[in-house]
Amino acid sequence: MNSDFEPVPQAGGGGIHAPMKPVPAGTITMRNARTNSVRDVELAEFLISATQVTRGQWAHLCGELGPESSEAEIPVHPVTFFDAVRWCNKASQFAGFSPAYTFNDTSVSWDVSANGYRLPTEAEWEWACRARTTTPTYGALAEIAWTQGDQMGGPQPVARKESNDFGLYDMIGNLWEWCWDYADVARYGSYRSLRGGGWADAPYSARASVRRGSAPDAILEDVGFRVARGAVGAPGLNAAQGWSAAADRLRADIRGPLPMGWTPLRSLLNDY
To answer: What is the pTM of this model?
Structure first.
């Protein structure tokens, strides 16, 4: 995993080289206020895109007319979770990599041994975002992120503010980004996690640790994604980089009277 650049398709055909940055192996402490839990996650090295996926990249792969050149570098939005993982598979096929995802009706499974494009896990995302920092943001918010304070009417072209020490742009602000993990399968059913904050969010929502969740088919104006890449487990292994299918099933198998509004994702129990 020694190349910083890979071919990612762009509007206009042929593709250009867009940066995929190597993120080193390391350990991150993940805190979950909803479950009042703390855990240390050991991460293997992986690649992640320096920017959120742009309209230009999206349009070429999806067979759509490319956006005007002035809009090609704006991150694509709104994007559902299902749209994002399907785009990842298309990008893998375009570049000659093994697709990471398999679809079965409305469910998606991840082959952790595949070398294709995929969404980062929450642990990968936060480790990449923090770039070894321990503060709420990896720099002064006004210098690194598009947020409410900039008074913008929508997301801005990628990489216009400062990067973090891993060479990643807009990890905080501009658009919320889909991650692979469920938000909480005991409380929020099939909702998937979002990280990073958006252009209209107040500073308290624009932090490395803040998480949000939404339905995988939800169309939200302030949501986009960036891609990760790299095989991080053996074939058939249903756990990697801080995510575990077994842990999801255990959490979904909550017993007894449920708090009002909780909707456990019981369909996960059928995987046994």
So the answer is: 0.93
* Cβ atoms within 10 Å, residue 266: 13
User: For residue 197, which amino acid is it?
Assistant: G
DSSP code string of 107-151: EEEE-TT--SEEPPPHHHHHHHHHTT--SSSSS-HHHH---GGG-
- Distance (Å, rounded) from C-alpha 177 to C-alpha 197? 8
Q: Tokens at residue 190, please?
A: 């099939």
Residues 246-265: pLDDT tens digits? Answer: 999 999 999 999 999 999 99
Query: E strands along 149-256, which residues?
Result: 176-182, 192-195, 211-214, 223-224, 228-229, 239-240, 243-244
Which pLDDT tens digit goes with each residue over 60-86?
A: 888 776 677 778 999 999 999 999 999
Judging by beta carbons within 10 Å of its beta carbon (0-12, 13-18, 19+), is residue 138 exposed, middle or buried?
buried
Q: At a CB cut-off of 8 Å and minimum separation 6, what does 91 contact?
A: 8, 9, 61, 116, 117, 227
238, 244 contact by CB (below 8 A) = yes
